[in-house]
Amino acid sequence: MSRYTGPKARVSRRLGTNIWGTKGETIALDKRPYPPGEHGRSRRRGSVSEYLMQLQEKQKARFTYGLTERQFRNLFAESSRRQGVTGENMLRFLELRLDNVIYRAGWGATRPQSRQFVNHGHVNVNGRRVTIPSYRVRKGDVIELRPKARDFTVVQWNSDVLDRTPPAWLELGENFQVTIRELPIREQIDIPVREQLIVELYSK
């Protein structure tokens, strides 16, 4: 299993947005709203190159969904082969990852926490246990937490306190069950990423 384990606030400050959705990142962005490093405060705004803008958008998407560089490149290659707009295909594939569905359903406070639920075998897809966070769900799939996981304090807290509203492409059922009603469209994906810049980066 490969995932980023370094300082989260540092990445969020460099990219200018709260990537993982933690309180620590919010505090860091409020206290030091400039890039990290010795010259972060004095770095000239407006001198950002086109390549840097494209790279930052790619890094936002990659860190947000927890992919390695190789995984992201392969996913982009698949997106470009499919019919439709490449950037929208890419975001749709990212949204259909199993760990992201757990996050969107409100069972995990963050995507890394949702990824952990899947890794530890607490999630069923169509009645069968799935332990692969990158598993891509399809229209009509039914995802549910296994009975033991439904009683976890953290799951109950996330469900009651976060009160996250699932996107329209998910249909939330009872007893921690969610159904993929339809494939997500761009308007239903609320991450602050300009996917066209990612397409331009990989098209060079």
What does this 3D model show about the protein?
With 204 residues, the chain is α+β, with helices and mostly antiparallel strands. The chain is built from 10 helices and 5 strands. It has helices at 8-15, 23-31, 50-65, 69-81, 86-95, 98-104, 111-119, 147-150, 153-162, 195-202; strands spanning 123-125, 128-129, 142-145, 170-172, 177-180. Strands 2-1-3-5-4 form a 5-stranded antiparallel β-sheet. A hairpin with a 4-residue loop joins strand 4 and strand 5 (177-180). The mean pLDDT is 89.
Q: What layout of secondary structure does this protein have?
A:
Blueprint: H1 8-15, H2 23-31, H3 50-65, H4 69-81, H5 86-95, H6 98-104, H7 111-119, E1 123-125, E2 128-129, E3 142-145, H8 147-150, H9 153-162, E4 170-172, E5 177-180, H10 195-202
Antiparallel strand pairs: 1-2, 1-3, 3-5, 4-5
